[in-house]
Design goal:
Number of strands: 3
Strand order of the largest sheet: 1-3-2
Organism: Jiulongibacter sediminis
Number of helices: 5
Protein name: Helix-turn-helix domain-containing protein
Largest sheet: 3 strands, antiparallel
Strand content: 5-15%
Helix content: 40-55%
Order of helices and strands: HHEHHEEH
Length: 87
């Protein structure tokens, strides 16, 4: 890893260095991580399943909900895909 001296660095230079570092990490990460499931909120899940929010509320017990903060849950796209395949 490169050694970085932050004493006399401009904010724009710091941002650029961070972006470069993030890109390097992302490009070097194993392909297994790229296959991770995408997480959708309720609105996105409804659009993905092509159903209305009331219909989603009726069937959401069939999916694992992951609470990311108080009052905010997300659903795994992989779980939604499995549900669609089971129909």
């Amino acid at each position: 890893m490169k050694e970085i001296h932050l004493l006399n660095i401009e904010l724009s230079e710091l941002k650029e260095l961070i972006q470069i570092s993030v890109r390097e990490v992302q490009s070097s990460s194993p392909s297994k991580n790229k296959e991770k499931s995408k997480y959708l909120n309720q609105t996105e899940a409804c659009k993905y399943l092509k159903i209305t929010p009331p219909t989603f509320r009726k069937i959401r017990s069939r999916f694992n909900a992951y609470q990311v903060s108080e009052g905010r849950k997300v659903y795994s796209q992989r779980d939604l895909d499995e549900y669609l395949q089971s129909l």
